[in-house]
Specification:
heterodimer; A: mainly beta; seven-stranded mixed sheet; four-stranded antiparallel sheet; about 50% strand; B: mainly beta; five-stranded antiparallel sheet; 11 strands; globular
């Protein structure tokens, strides 16, 4: 019963490097989301997807890209890492609209130095 | 942009005390969720309220949605060390596609 799985758990990047944060869910959920959580703060929505092939911007999309080629996977791409992207990243999924229960992964802690 | 403000930001109490956490906005939300997050983990949903004035109880936790659906409160009776964590409120927009999270209340319950 894996739920939402995120990899890696920790990563350190140099300024200008790129990386992909992986997220996969095995609950056949239609909706998937990427959030970032800065220290002592709440979560801010980066991108979301309502189904395979459909993505949309959230509150803070700049510097990120996403794709949704399958129902299960929703990777988040950082092209040119900047110190402002140092944060904890959470992937989440839900069966339907956000009024539904969100299931979160355990997060990826990213530091850009 | 809809904003949710939580208060207090930090709360440290002794086991057995009661506490209330507030979540306020100038915007109307279609629904309001409360999550609890422990260190190194993602948030876990505690409750969803959708009707103005709605009150839900979950053991020692009581959640209330304001009549105007702009605010909510979480009351914990006889807090226990296991209640320690970050409590987040999140409001749903009318389209149902986006949740706005508050900044969180970090609760520590000392034995």
């Amino acid at each position: 019963n894996a739920g939402v799985t995120q990899t890696p758990k920790f990563r350190i990047l140099k300024i200008g490097q790129s990386m992909t944060l992986q997220c996969t869910q095995d609950m056949n959920h239609n909706y998937m989301y990427w959030y970032r959580q800065d220290p002592g703060m709440g979560l801010k929505l980066i991108y979301y997807s309502v189904g395979a092939g459909i993505t949309d911007k959230g509150e803070v999309p700049n510097g990120y890209n996403v794709s949704r080629s399958t129902t299960e996977d929703f990777p988040l791409r950082l092209e040119l890492a900047a110190p402002s992207q140092t944060s904890v990243y959470f992937c989440a999924s839900s069966l339907g609209r956000e009024i539904e229960k969100l299931f979160f992964g355990s997060g990826t802690q990213l530091s850009v130095l | 942009t809809q904003l949710l403000e939580q208060s207090p930001q930090f709360l440290s109490i002794q086991e057995g005390e009661n506490l209330t956490v507030y979540c306020n906005s100038s915007s109307v939300f279609s629904s309001l969720q409360w999550y609890r997050q422990e260190p190194g983990e993602g948030p876990v949903l505690l409750v969803t309220v959708v009707t103005g004035g709605e009150v839900k109880k979950l053991k020692r936790l009581t959640f209330q949605f304001g009549d105007a659906r702009k605010d909510s409160s979480l009351h914990i009776t006889a807090a226990q060390p296991g209640d320690t964590g970050l409590y987040l409120c999140a409001g749903g927009d009318n389209a149902g596609n986006m949740l706005t999270f508050g900044g969180g209340t970090r609760l520590m319950v000392k034995p």
